[in-house]
Amino acid sequence: MRTRAARAVGAAAAASLLLPAAVAVAVAGPQHGPGSGPEHHRGSHLAATLAGRATLSADHLAEGPPSGAAASPGNGRQGPWDGQVIPGFSAMIDNHDGTFWAQPDNGFGAKGNSADFLLRNYLVRPQWDTGRKGSGDIKVLDHIEYNDRDDVLDFDIVNDDTDERLLTGADFDIESVVRAKDGTLWVGEEFGPFLLHFDADGTLLEAPYEFPDGKSPANPYLEPGETPNVGSSRGFEAMAGSGRYLYPVVEGALADDDDARRRWIYQFDTRKGEYTGERWAYQTDREANVIGDAFATGRDSMLLIERDDFEGDQSVTKRVYEIDLSRTDRDGYVRKELVVDALRIENPRGIDAGEGYGLGDTFALPVQSFETVLFVDRDTLLIGNDNNYPGNDARVTGTPDDTEMALVDLKKKRVTEDGVTVVGHRGASGYRPEHTLAAYETAINQCVDYIEPDVVSTKDGVLVARHENEIGGTTDVAAHAGFADRRTTKTIDGTSITGWFTEDFTLAELRTLRAKERLPQVRPQNTPFDGLYQIPTLDEVLDLARNSRTCDGAPVGVYPETKHPTYFDSIDLSLEEPLVRELRRNGFDRADAPVIVQSFEVGNLQDLDTMTDVRLGQLVSSSGAPYDLVADGDPRTYADMVTRSGLREVASYADGIGAEKNVLIPREADGTLAAPSPVIRDAHRVGLEVHTWTFRRENQFLAADFRSSNDPNGIGDMVGEVQVFMEAGLDGFFTDNPDLGVAAVS
Q1: According to the 3-state scheme, what is the secondary structure of 165-195?
Q2: CB 18 within 8 A of CB 381
Q3: Which of 55, 163, 316, 671 could join 402 in a cystine, given CB atoms 3.0 to 4.6 angstroms apart?
């Protein structure tokens, strides 16, 4: 809830992204020097545009013996295949002549099904489709085969008894590669996890370097009874190189780490052939996210891919962050700044538009395994995928994903604002189950200014995002037999409610649940996402916001609502103190932070006014009264609060109001919009900003003059309704359909 002057100040001071440095080939990326290294640009952001795309058919076979005899079938494909499958690329090296060395992984995902898959590195030349020229094909020119012909390994391999001792996907799971100044190749793999050192022709030069902090279940040196510390297929998916040092990154959390969002970055000295003992902690946006690739941009800086394991329209996180090992936050994690959200890349030339999901005016890389990132020049990223052949079908359901390479131009643009605040109500709850990171990410990609988490408390005092503390209608808790005895009846704000309540569950217990659509009859298109997503913590929502940018380049704001604060006070789970702590921990507890805390009650906002500098919003319904006033015997109602004197009182502790639509523009008896009430004018006179809730596209939520039919779930003219409210002087609004809300104010 910003005044227009404050908006201008906020835009000028908006945090910027790091501009990545120019790149060079060697074990290293670039060194700091004139014109290189990470830079901050106040009031600017990096805009990502698709510059070119090239693909290799998923069904392409390279020369060699048959492969995939034990691979799991998928998408109409069944092995064995008469040649070597190329299941996408997990790592790449730029040769700076238009060609790349592109390395697949172990083939089909496990030791047991990849014994006939040969470990290779392919020389490829993409024929970039730029929207103006180029075939869009990836040409495979040559390859090297990784081997142990010098008999370095001291454990059995598939081709043990052959002269060439070619390595297979049953021997190693290779995932990352860095080329040293002498042309040798350092490869990070996952079965150990090991660091492997090969000559330029692919011959293993020395024994694998073992990870100092644990082993995976597939490690050939695992002792009987020894507990693996590294998750299966969670080793060195990513590795960067800088100077003499390698920086392998553990893909997932270590088994004995009490923080499931922590990923460790290690330092390895290639001259000494040993780990240095240095390591850095990186925090993922959510527990299940993994690290897909790394690329050095400076002596202390690198790009990291952070991704989830979803694909297609289920995808939430496919991002490239830049980190600086010399900068850590107050919790000890390296600071990260968004470079590219691979689910939102502009495609003004329409490259391959219409050919599959994520190919349109906006380009997305919604593949499960987003595993390649590097700079090809100062302003251009290359991104690509491992297609997990034949199982992934992110683009076209039922058709295996092709191998993709895409060029992404990064240009600085000024941060801009249109003066209207669009709030993703519980995320983009018209398109994804509400209060999930998927809903919030969708809202961000649909260009909201703020995302709105309603906050309630768990039994152990952790704030989580749910519309209500009763979760029977928004999660699959009823399907968990072990929680059947938690079903109970409680009185919440004077109303008797039966169900399951967050305050009866620890966070760990809530993590076992999955979200579902609250209004399946109204939004059947959301039900395919049921059972996919966890309940996010407020901390995770704040992290997503602070690591994101709006379409205009400003920081994404957070608009938390404290739910039933009087009730939570009564059970010794006060919401205000942990809310302020989370805001402070995430750097949001300041007057100019993109945060507005809202509540239907009065007393907790008055308390918060003394506890934090962030802006506060008094929610107002078209009927009833704040429950804390009711509980105290105070006769004031919401109607009293929007009189001139009531608004002056609100202005003494809040910065704005969030009023139900009918408070601002009532409806006639026939359901059409009447003339605006004086509330917007009177609120502005006392310095309050005015937002309203909630715009939804379905007929039943629209005024009669904007409905398309008598079908309550039919889609009406939400854009038209919003525009009437904007003409009345509204400053912002909540919507379940952010794309339509943004269209209404564009």
Answers
A1: CECECCCCCEEEEEECCCCCEEEEECCCCEE
A2: no
A3: 55
Report the Cα 671 to chain-centroid distance in Å.
40
| pLDDT tens for each residue of 674-718 | 999 999 999 999 999 999 999 999 999 999 999 999 999 999 999
SS3 state of residue 353: coil
- Biggest CA-to-CA distance, the chain: 91
Residue 66 to residues 83, 84, 116, 118, 123, Cα–Cα distance (Å): 4, 6, 7, 10, 21
The SS3 assignment for 443 reads helix
| β-bridge pairing 732-735 and 421-424 | parallel
Strand pairing category for 561-562 and 454-457:
parallel
The Cβ of residue 109 has, within 10 Å, a number of other Cβ atoms equal to 18
Q: Which residues of 584-615 are buried (b: 16+ CB within 10 A; e: fewer)?
A: eebebbeeebbbbbbbbbbbbbebbbeebebb
The one-letter amino acid code at 264 reads W
- List the alpha helices (DSSP H) in 335-482: 437-445
Q: CB-based contacts of 1: which residues, under 8 Å, 6+ apart?
A: 421, 596, 615, 617, 655, 656, 688, 689, 691, 731, 732
Do 175 and 236 touch, CB atoms closer than 8 A? yes
pLDDT number for residue 32: 29
Task: Answer for the pair 403, 423: CB distance below 8 angstroms, yes or no.
Answer: no
Instruction: Give one word for 179, left, alpha or beta, with left for phi > 0 and alpha for psi -120 to 50.
Output: beta
pLDDT of residue 7: 26
Q: How many Cβ atoms sit within 10 Å of the Cβ of residue 719?
A: 19
Cα-based torsion angle of the residue sequence 468, 471, 474, 478 in order, rounded to the nearest 10 degrees: -170
149 neighbors 202 (Cβ within 8 angstroms): no
pLDDT, tens only, 270-307: 999 999 999 999 999 999 999 999 999 999 999 999 99
Q: How far is CA 221 from the centre of its chain?
A: 36
**Full-model pTM:** 0.92
Q: What is the DSSP letter of 73?
A: P
Give residue 606's pLDDT: 98
Contact 264, 250 (CB under 8 A): yes
Helical spans, DSSP H, in 111-177:
none
Angle in degrees, CA 346, 18, 305, rounded to 5:
65
Q: Give the closest residue to 84 by CA, choosing from 113, 64, 112.
A: 64
Mean pLDDT of 426-432: 98
At residue 745, the 3 state secondary structure works out as: helix
* pLDDT exceeds 70 at position 593: yes
Q: How many residues does the chain have?
A: 746
Strand pairing category for 421-424 and 689-695: unpaired
Centre a 10 Å sphere on the Cβ of residue 68 and count the other Cβ atoms it contains. Answer: 26
Q: What band does 111 get if pLDDT is binned at 50, 70 and 90?
A: very high
Q: What single DSSP character describes residue 528?
A: G
Tell me the residue type at 744: A
719 residue type, one letter: V
SS3 sequence of 76-114: CECCCECCEECCCCCEEEECCCCCEEEECCCCCCCHHHC
Report pLDDT for 28.
32
Q: Where are the beta strands (DSSP E) in 252-300?
A: 262-269, 274-283, 290-296
Give burial (CB, 10 Å; 0-12/13-18/19+) of 705: middle
pLDDT tens for residues 24-51? 333 333 332 222 322 333 578 889 999 9
Instruction: Please give the Cα distance from 138 to 540 (Å, whole number).
Output: 39
Give the phi and the psi of residue 26 in degrees, each rounded to 5.
160, -175
Q: Which residues contact 92 (CB under 8 A, 6 or more apart)?
A: 100, 101, 102, 103, 177, 372, 374, 382, 384
- Residues with Cβ within 8 Å of residue 590, at least 6 apart in sequence: 613, 614
Asked if residue 339 has pLDDT above 70, the reply is yes
State the DSSP code for 360: S
List all residues 6 or more positions away from 232 whose beta carbon is below 8 Å from its beta carbon.
216, 217, 218
